[in-house]
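Sequence in, structure out. Go.
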Amino acid sequence: MNLNRKNILTVSVISGLVIAALMLFCDESFARPGGGHGFHGGGHYSGGGHYSGGSHYSGGSGGGGGLFINFTGNFIVDLLINIAIWVAIMTIKNMLFGSDDDDSAVVSSATPQNFADRTKKINANLSELINKDTNFSKPVFLDYVTMLYNKLYLTYNKKEIDEVKPFLKCKVPDFGPNTFSEIAIGSVEISNIAFDSGTVFITVAFQSNYTATNIKTGNSIRYEIEEEWLFSKQENVLSPKPEGFGVLRCPNCGGTLDFKDYGVCKNCGTEFNFQSGGWVVNVISRKQMNKSETKDMLSYAREEGTNNPTVYSPTVAKDIQTFKSNHEEFVSTVDFCTKIVRPYFYEIYKNWSEGTWDKTRHLISERQWQNFNAYLQQLQKLGYANKLADIQITKIETAKYDIDFNYESITVRIFAQCLDYIVDSQGNKVAGNNKKPRKFSEYWTFVANKNAVFKNTDLHKCPNCGAPVEKIGESGICEYCNSKISDGNFSWILFSITQDEVYTG
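Output:
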């Protein structure tokens, strides 16, 4: 063993770097609408893009085995720490004992070009699907799959799970003796579209956090989850005609087909299934599951993606021009951000903080509003309130624009900061920070009916008739004009919020 002064110095530096990395990654950091403060991504989803047959749920907890050590409960961070330690150990080993061989390894990794090619392929297949199925709309489909995702978990190990079964071609997954709550979905994206033997397959990637409570022991653990759900539909049958968000429509008569109806239309008796044009779930595959660094609704996760470069659609420049040609009321997408995005953002954050959430009913899609409302109700049951103060938008960037036969959507990345903390019923701070602003960024997607007629832009009035927002009930129907105002038929609505660390375009 030849350990000279230079080797000792190098070993010391490497060891110091490893220790510094451990301190950096394990540092504890300090709710926004929907619990964005507590969402923690388990790492970016990287799908293979190919459909492989089979109809079985594949369980597993991910991130494990061998010499892998959990330091933080965050798979990606722990992976980086393990790699750093491994590199340090191998470097020290080679210095002290010499290298085993001189062969160099070739490692392939995702590149911007790989990502662009993948996105291009998905968009091409999406265009083909839309041309074949003029009823198909990406926002409506994503709204449907998100409802199904929430419903499966919220009814698991409860009798209401029967309401989900008509939409599954596979068996209900075995998630053990648990019930689930505090679901925060950070990302929902179409990761692949394929056509095979008269069937259309769409793979949807979910990244979410939830709390699992063991019904036998009562113990609760919060997890970070990555899942893929494979949906299918007959290629030569149209999807149910899109009539809005937050509900299912009968493919036969167009009537409301709620989950409580067990997949059977109460008007005409038609069953919602694969043969009738319904999108059904073939496979539910869990890719990764890790304990979250946040333990409950009072926990604050690190803001990990704020400094990431913005993910733009490969055709964003062309798409922005298409948007401008479709909307003479906006000089540019910057004008759209000034007239729509900024006012919506400040109004939504104001009402979230002040506990006047009902006043945002007309600004947010049905499903998104209900999810946020459920989160607030859970927080209130615990006797807490989320306060947001000194809210400032620092920058907005247009990332994507889509349009089909039914709806159009525009995604922007909002950079902002605010004081974000939680108080108890006495007004005492119990979590967060009411002194130091929390900087963050999120991708907000706004949707409108392609043929919407925008009558009123006052955020405090019904977008159709101008009645005060107080006259809009929890159902999202205006008491004066009896219009459903959260479907994008009269105004832009906030369709989804995606956390920056998991957004892929």
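Check: The beta strands are 178-196, 199-214, 220-234, 280-291, 385-403, 407-423, 429-449, 493-499. Residues 8-30, 43-73, 92-109 have pLDDT under 50 and may be disordered.
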